[in-house]
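Exercise 7b. Backbone tokens:
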């Protein structure tokens, strides 16, 4: 028990001493000393302390020898501290300030990488995802031969999948709402029509998406449900459209489990259309 208490007291004293040392450095007017201490903190993995010192130093060191490294190291400290939004802004500032700087290539890459790390759930606003895509594309345009290009390309696929998933979840929601009219606007007749439009637009924007089959299933099912719920004057035409969609689905995805559903829909459609 006494030994444990002694250890706790020693640790508290050590932490107190470290905090006191950092405060002394922070209050110091010796920017060279601050800069070297910030580098030491970064090397030790104390990224918050390093970032705190560097945020002040990047202002006073403008135009000086260590200005570039200070700004880049600030971005890396923020990134390692998982302050990804701040890191992205810092890396962008570095690239804009030093487009031919010593760390320009890495900074350009980490603008996108920082936003990639904060990529939101597909159900949420995708501004960070779009920003990361644009940043990675800019990086590959500036540095087509960079060893980081392959990583950026892989990240782009992941980011695009996130956007596609958001569209899929929207289309699926419209399908699940079905005959509910509380959310219908003047541009669509039903939720099934909204599902079809959302899914078709997604396929146009992302024709090689891994979710292509799932989008196609939603379109097929929605066209059939739309036909079933149509007025008499539109009914036959929409059943024919649903039937054509089912044939198209079977042709594109002959191994899909949903082909059984497509065949069932075709049989029902033929009873209505008489074809």
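Sequence design result:
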């Amino acid at each position: 028990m006494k030994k444990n208490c002694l250890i706790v007291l020693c640790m508290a004293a050590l932490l107190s001493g470290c905090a006191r040392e950092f405060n002394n450095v922070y209050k110091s007017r010796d920017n060279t000393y601050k800069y070297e201490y910030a580098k030491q903190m970064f090397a030790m993995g104390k990224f918050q302390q390093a970032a705190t010192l560097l945020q002040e130093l990047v202002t006073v060191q403008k135009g000086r020898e260590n200005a570039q490294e200070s700004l880049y190291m600030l971005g890396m400290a923020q990134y390692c501290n998982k302050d990804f939004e701040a890191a992205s802004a810092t890396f962008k500032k570095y690239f804009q300030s030093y487009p031919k700087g010593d760390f320009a290539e890495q900074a350009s890459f980490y603008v996108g990488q920082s936003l990639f790390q904060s990529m939101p759930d597909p159900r949420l606003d995708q501004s960070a995802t779009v920003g990361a895509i644009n940043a990675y594309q800019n990086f590959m345009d500036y540095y087509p031969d960079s060893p980081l290009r392959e990583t950026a390309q892989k990240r782009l696929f992941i980011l695009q999948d996130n956007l596609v998933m958001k569209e899929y979840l929207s289309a699926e929601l419209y399908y699940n709402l079905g005959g509910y009219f509380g959310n219908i606007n003047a541009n669509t007749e039903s939720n099934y029509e909204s599902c079809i439009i959302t899914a078709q637009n997604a396929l146009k924007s992302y024709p090689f998406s891994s979710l292509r089959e799932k989008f196609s299933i939603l379109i097929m099912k929605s066209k059939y449900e739309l036909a079933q719920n149509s007025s008499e004057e539109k009914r036959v035409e929409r059943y024919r459209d649903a039937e054509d969609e089912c044939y198209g689905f079977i042709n594109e995805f002959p191994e899909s489990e949903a082909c059984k559903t497509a065949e069932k829909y075709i049989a029902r459609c033929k009873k209505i259309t008489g074809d």
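Instructor comment: The mean pLDDT is 88. DSSP finds twelve helices and no strands in the chain.
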